[in-house]
Amino acid sequence: MIEFLQQLINGLSLGAIYALIALGYTMVYGVLRFINFAHGDVFMIGAFAGLYVAPVVLKFSNGGPSWPGAFLVLVAAMVICAILGIVIEKLAYRPLRNRPRLTVLITAIGVSLFLENFGQYAFGVDPQSFPDLIGDHAINIPAWCGPLTDLTIMVSQVLVFAVTLILLVALRFIVTKTKLGMAMRALSVNPVATSLMGVNNDVVISFTFGLGSALAGAAGILISIQQPSIDPLMGLQPGIKAFVAAVLGGIGNIPGAALGGVLLGVIETLVVGYSDRLHIPSGYRDAVAFFLLILILLFKPTGLLGRVEREKV
Amino acid sequence: MRIASILPFFATLALGALPGLAQDQIKVGEFASMSGGSASFGQSSHNGTMLAFEEINAAGGVLGKKIDLHTEDDRSVAGEPATIVRKLISQDNVVAVLGEVASSKSLEAAPICQENHIPMISPASTNAKVTAVGDYIFRVCFIDPFQGKVMAKFALSKGWTKVAVLKDVKQDYSVGLADAFEKSFTPAGGTVVKTQEYSTGDKDFRAQLTSIKASHPDAIFVPGYYAEVALIAREARQLGIKAPLLGGDGWVGESLLKVAGNALDGSFFSNHYSQDDPSPVIQNFVKTYQAKYGEKPDAMAALGYDSAKILADAITRAGTTDGPKLRDAIAATRDFKGVTGDITLDADRNATKAAVILTIANGGFQFVQRVAP
Description:
The structure holds two protein chains of two kinds. By secondary structure, chain A is mainly alpha-helical.
């Protein structure tokens, strides 16, 4: 029983990371009907931004872990990634705005490759150690919980979960309750009509990309706090898994991305953790994600929370 | 900026340019992971190889000619060794190839060297399949059937009869060593209580470790490479697993203790040599290496050094760099006094050598015992 609970905790923590990255994917798709394949690599840039900003910030706390310092690093990474996202949009996607979807998709793959190789050139190919920003340790479970004291919950795991929830709520608020959010939703329905209503499409699209990339940057920092080994290719695997999570929950649907992420994390962890009882070697962990993708596309292609959109002529 | 990986190449070119013409040199190829997830392997073995060839060239070279080393980086990426070894053979026209440390990469390159009749000497690949590829493939280290037996016997000697195994499915080395361990461990009274797997490059092992924790092992055998082992050790301690970790020579990496912190304290692994060994041969080597590179040589550096010296010795004995004759000379290596021990190549082209068991304490490796073959 304890083992199962611990695996659940592991899965939720992994899932929160997937959910965070999936939020960015799903938001950009929801507004622009475009899968930004470079999203996973923006997440990697966020982690490296944190690596370079952290020593500067930590100087004020004499190199030791500090929560305000961690918060500053998080904000700095989010800002840097937001700017990066806006620049990418301006240079790579905007000129192709009226072209077929496929063209922009291929460009996105190109941007992804560019970021990866640029990262390898600029940061070096070897994995680097991310500084301990919050003094990560296991939470002390009080003795009255009985057998539950055997569980290990790291502060970083709770942090990732909390931040994901906060950002989820904040994103929902921005999209449903602000003017810019309304413009984003209008853009997703009909870009031409939106511009006729006096909305500057370019600004809204830039804002969407900036916001999505900021989320990726946040994910980059949070994961680096939990798994302090970063390298320029670290965005590949989480990026693909988060994409699967977003599709699983319904691409374009914000709560769906969070649900998909958590579901994927939990299923993946349980399959690996109980691999001998399931007779699936745990080396197949990545295959689980893609198997789920195939299943969902076969039986519910709009995703768990997605709605079928009828094209009205 | 990874200029550092190109600099040695230019340095060796410059070294080779001294006498003037390329025909006055013996071209030797080397492929190693100079960058990427297992960069420590390639950088160490390359340093050892370079040091050896520099010493040889300074003493007049081999058969009156200097050795010209051509090094290629496989960036720790599967698939790269095949490409770069083909290049070394067909474009650079090397007479022999040194490499690799990782067994999977040696297995990629071995068929190419075999079909081109170019002798290949692996400094540190321990998976038994490597030399089985053909009679042009050699190694100067022991093999995993022996290494697995060493750790199995050690575990049993410590009274650890229940062991969990956590292996890397993407590496032939890891799978082979785990197999060898089990084959020696189970018949002698041990039980493998849980087997879990991961892939090279994984960063999260909590699912596997939680499952292992629930099986209450006395020790956990992790025959993987240093990058993942360090993360595994960290997460194991975070999850409250107190059992010691056991491993093999794949643990030898620069970043192992930097990333693991004190999570590996009290764990044990088998290795090719110990830099604290008081023998004069080893201490001499450690001093020279440290003077040149500013750090002590690890096992991969020592093996890189030995593989280079054995190749040079074989060329001298053969009197030529012609493929078949050079192959025969390498195969005839007997009692070569290497830094990693006395090296004799047997009929399977493997070296029969002792292993050392090291433990981690006080931020470094400490010698525990030597195990003869």
